[in-house]
Write a structure and sequence with these properties.
Layout lengths: L15 H10 L7 H22 L3 H24 L5 H26 L7 H22 L7 H4 L2 E3 L3 H8 L1 H9 L7 H16 L3 E3 L8 H20 L1 H28 L34
Helix pairs in contact: 2-3, 2-4, 3-4, 3-7, 4-5, 4-7, 5-9, 7-9, 8-11, 10-11
């Protein structure tokens, strides 16, 4: 006597119950849920940013989007580290990115200053959100394409969605850091939002941080620069964010010139597909992490 009802031994059920157990036994391992949980946390952070903006707490609203960006940079790497790449994770990441880096920043900036121009401001917010979604749709549609000149040369196409969200907040960084009301001018901010929106869907080659390989002579200096940047973020976060944003904008033309030089040298060899494809995942999909991973060409 085991004290269990007839037909139950260690959780094994007869009939329909046994079939349920077999489905569970053949289901996804727990490690698959880790990157997806990080993606869900990024989505929650992005939505929480909207809540802070509704309450007029714009500093915490921006911080929530920045946290979402940090989490977005982790989930894809966690998926690759744990070998937990799935089609579900890829789709979840794209949906989360469209909200955290498209819808949420658009609403935050609209509630901050664009609402003063009910028509033009709302159109600018819509343009930003729509272009972010279009960018992510383009990313998903090109996962299986072999001919990707930008990716083969080690570049991205256009500005990635998380960085686009950070660029959209530049007027807000300056406004918070300085208190100068001109940085919240709704007309100027509307134009700025539209410019960043088109940068996201543009075909401009932009630098891919995961593909950059600085020469040994610069590595120590770069490590020191990263340390100083972290220290600056802790002491003067808004001014530092503005400087980082402006520095990225300055790198865009440098990336274009560098790409043109590489292309003039001749075509780069195509990036080989993985030797062992993951069932249900396109050959170059990152499963989660979207544009942050080394396989993210867009």
């Amino acid at each position: 006597m085991t004290g269990e009802p007839d037909g139950i031994q260690g959780g094994e059920f007869e009939g329909d119950g046994l079939r349920v157990r077999r489905r569970l036994a053949g289901g996804l391992p727990m490690r698959v849920f880790v990157p997806n949980a990080i993606t869900a946390a990024a989505l929650c952070s992005g939505l929480t940013g909207i809540r802070f903006a509704i309450g007029g707490d714009y500093e915490r609203a921006v911080q929530a989007i920045i946290l979402a960006g940090l989490l977005d940079g982790i989930d894809g790497r966690a998926a690759r580290l744990l070998k937990a790449q799935t089609r579900f994770g890829a789709e979840l990441d794209s949906l989360a990115d469209s909200i955290s880096f498209g819808v949420a920043p658009a609403l935050i900036v609209y509630l901050w200053t664009l609402h003063q121009l009910p028509s033009l401001g709302w159109i600018a917010a819509l343009a930003f959100a729509i272009c972010c979604v279009l960018r992510l749709a383009r990313f998903n549609s090109r996962l299986d394409e072999i001919d990707q000149p930008h990716k083969d040369a080690g570049f991205l196409t256009g500005v990635p969605a998380p960085i686009g969200a950070g660029l959209a907040f530049l007027p807000m960084y300056l406004w918070i850091a300085s208190g100068v009301p001109e940085f919240a001018n709704p007309i100027a901010v509307s134009v700025w939002m539209v410019v960043i929106a088109f940068l996201m869907i543009s075909s401009l080659p932009t630098l891919s941080w995961s593909r950059m390989s600085p020469p040994p002579s610069l590595r120590v200096g770069l490590i020191a620069l990263v340390g100083l940047t972290v220290a600056a973020l802790l002491t003067e976060p808004w001014f530092t964010l503005a400087v980082i944003t402006i520095a990225y904008l300055a790198l865009i033309p440098i990336g274009i010139v560098t790409y043109m030089k590489i292309r003039r040298r001749g075509p780069s060899p195509a990036v080989p597909s993985p030797a062992i494809p993951v069932p249900g995942v396109p050959p170059q999909s990152t499963a989660t992490g979207g544009e942050d991973g080394p396989n993210g060409p867009f």
